[in-house]
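Researcher: Next sequence.
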Amino acid sequence: MFPQASKFIPLLDRVLVQRAAALKQTTGGIMLPESVQSKVNEATVLAVGPGRRSTTGDLVPMAVSVGDKVLLPEYGGNNITIGEEDFTLFRDEDILGIMQ
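Model: Next structure:
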């Protein structure tokens, strides 16, 4: 699906996502300028790390898996570019929920 993203493996409890595209046109066909396009808080999980370690050294499993549609916080994450694609890297605990 995203061959560039397959070259990136997140460490610890990090999750690589690609945000859904912002709405660029209304249902009536009016083109929206970038200044009024809202930031999309939905994304698809492309890669996940193995998880974090607890204070006792046990591996805490990730709450999300590859292919999940997730809800992101309005702010946060680290924007990265792999090849010509833009992605965002979040910690597992920062993701708000899984969309069903």
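Model: DSSP finds no helices and eight strands in the chain. The chain has a mean pLDDT of 81.
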